[in-house]
C-alpha cells in the first residue's frame, strides 16, 4: 500500500480543486452579515499541513477571510487550558443539536445551559467565562494563543466586525436572554464585542490547516514544536468537532468526509486527521445549512483519495 505522505502532493490538490470549484455555483455567499456578501464566490483555496512535513496547498492561498465560527475552536481550547474542562462545561453542554447555529429555542424551552460550545449561545457563554477572568485583556490573551498556533498575527477585519455588530439582533437576544436566565454573567455588550471580534479575526486556509495540525499532533504546534494544549483538550475538541462541528449537517459530513471538522459562514472549513495532518479549505459559496459547498466537496474528494474516512471519528 502506498504511503499517504507520498500521495499528498500539489497535483492531487490541484485536481481536487478543479473539481470542487465547479460546485460553488450551487451555493450562495452569506449575506445576513452584509460585509461577508462582498467576497467573490469564485475564490477557492485548499491547504494540507502534515504534522511532520511541509504544507501543500493550491488555489487562492494568500486570500484572507474571517474565521467566524472556526474561531470557536481557539476560544474553547484557550478556555479549557485556563479553567479546566470540568469548569468550562458547567457553563455549556457537550451535546449535538439539530437546531440552527444561532437558535435560542433550546435554551428558552429548557432554561438550561447551551447545548454545545459551537452553537452561538455556547460560544458566547465561553466568551463570558474568559471575560470574567481577564476583562479587557481577554482578546490579547486569545490572539496570543492563536499566534502561538499558526506563527503569525493577522489582525481582525474591522469592517466585518462592525457589520456583525450592526446585524447582531439574534446574538444580542441570545446573550440578554441567557443573562436573564442566570446563564451569563457580566457586561453583555463587552462580552459580545469579544465574541464579534473573534469571529472577525483574519485567517487563510493555511492558518486553518496549522490549527488542525496542532490538534492532529496531540496539541503540539507545528510552527514551534511547543506543546500548547493538553491531551484532554485535544480529545474534547475532536469529539465536539465530530458531533457538532458543522451544526445540523454534522452527521452528513461525518458520513461523506469522515473527519472531525469545524465550519464558518465565511466559507472556511477546518478538518483534522488525527496523528497525520490538519486541513484548511476556503470557498465562500454556502449551502442551505451555512457550510461551504466546494469546501465539503474538496474534503470529500481528499478523504476518498487518501483513504482518510473514519480515521478521526
Automatic annotation (TrEMBL):
Gene Ontology molecular function terms on file: glutaminase activity
Reaction(s) catalysed by this chain's protein: L-glutamine + H2O = L-glutamate + NH4(+)
Isomerase in keyword set: no
Domain of life: Bacteria
GO biological process: glutamate biosynthetic process; L-glutamine catabolic process
Binding site for substrate: 69, 120, 164, 171, 195, 247, 265
Gene3D superfamilies (alphabetical): DD-peptidase/beta-lactamase superfamily
EC number: 3.5.1.2
Residues of the signal peptide: none
UniProt cross-references to InterPro entries, sorted A to Z: Beta-lactam/transpept-like, Glutaminase
Keywords: Acetylation, Hydrolase
Subunit structure: Homotetramer.
Family of this protein: Belongs to the glutaminase family.
Name recorded for this polypeptide: Glutaminase
Organism, as annotated: Synergistes jonesii
Native organism taxonomy: Bacteria, Thermotogati, Synergistota, Synergistia, Synergistales
Amino acid at each position: 500500500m502506498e504511503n499517504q505522505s507520498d500521495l499528498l502532493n500539489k497535483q492531487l490538490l490541484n485536481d481536487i480543486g478543479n473539481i470542487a470549484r465547479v460546485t460553488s455555483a450551487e451555493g450562495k455567499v452569506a449575506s445576513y452579515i452584509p460585509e461577508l456578501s462582498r467576497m467573490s464566490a469564485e475564490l477557492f483555496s485548499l491547504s494540507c499541513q502534515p504534522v511532520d512535513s511541509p504544507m501543500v496547498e493550491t488555489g487562492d492561498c494568500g486570500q484572507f477571510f474571517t474565521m467566524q465560527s472556526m474561531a470557536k475552536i481557539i476560544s474553547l481550547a484557550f478556555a479549557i487550558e485556563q479553567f479546566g474542562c470540568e469548569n468550562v462545561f458547567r457553563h455549556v453542554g457537550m451535546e449535538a443539536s439539530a437546531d440552527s447555529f444561532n437558535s435560542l429555542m433550546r435554551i428558552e424551552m429548557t432554561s438550561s445551559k447551551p447545548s454545545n460550545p459551537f452553537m452561538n449561545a455556547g460560544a458566547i457563554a465561553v466568551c463570558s467565562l474568559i471575560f470574567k477572568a481577564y476583562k479587557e485583556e481577554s482578546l490579547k490573551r486569545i490572539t496570543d494563543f492563536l499566534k502561538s498556533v499558526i506563527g503569525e498575527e493577522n489582525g481582525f477585519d474591522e469592517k466585518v466586525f462592525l457589520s456583525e455588530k450592526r446585524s447582531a439582533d439574534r446574538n444580542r437576544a441570545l446573550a440578554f436572554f441567557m443573562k436573564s436566565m442566570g446563564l451569563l454573567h457580566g457586561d453583555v455588550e463587552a462580552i459580545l464585542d469579544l465574541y464579534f471580534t473573534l469571529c472577525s479575526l483574519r485567517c487563510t486556509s493555511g492558518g486553518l490547516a496549522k490549527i488542525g495540525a496542532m490538534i492532529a499532533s496531540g496539541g503540539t504546534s507545528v510552527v514551534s514544536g511547543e506543546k500548547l494544549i493538553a491531551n484532554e483538550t485535544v480529545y474534547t475538541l475532536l469529539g465536539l468537532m465530530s458531533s457538532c462541528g458543522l451544526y445540523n449537517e454534522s452527521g452528513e459530513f461525518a458520513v461523506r468526509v469522515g473527519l472531525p471538522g469545524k465550519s464558518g459562514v465565511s466559507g472556511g472549513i477546518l478538518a483534522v486527521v488525527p496523528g497525520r495532518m490538519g486541513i484548511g479549505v476556503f470557498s465562500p459559496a454556502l449551502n442551505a445549512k451555512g457550510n461551504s459547498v466546494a469546501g465539503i466537496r474538496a474534503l470529500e474528494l481528499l478523504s476518498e483519495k487518501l483513504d482518510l474516512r473514519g480515521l478521526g471519528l
